[in-house]
Amino acid sequence: MSEMINKYVEIKVDEKSKVLTVKFLDRIPLDDFKKAVQFEYDMIGRHKLQKAFIDLRLMPVYPAGATELIKEEWFPKVISLGLKSIAFVQPQSVIAKLSMTSAHKEDTKSPVTMNHFGNAEEALAWLKSL
Q: Which range marks the domain in which residue 124 is found?
């Protein structure tokens, strides 16, 4: 199975472009967020993916505890699995942007290149250019 779809998130692997695509559909409880993250690890490892497109426009903020999980577990794990580039599409809300930008704060020594975008088209074009 190369996709996870539920009321909170759609996670798919674009086989043609070798990109993990993640689209959050609403506010997500932490337990469901953890399940989504685990599925992401599985897909990155199984398909040897180096690029990820993460659309956060419909998620108002990360659930409590997710920021720490992203910083302390998610980034180190996806790096160890070989992910090299991540395009985040941010929501319009200033509060949501601040929450998410804080969670995605890049370590200057990180081998992952990240970029934040206001729309999906720019994010996908950036990933394609790499």
A: 3-129
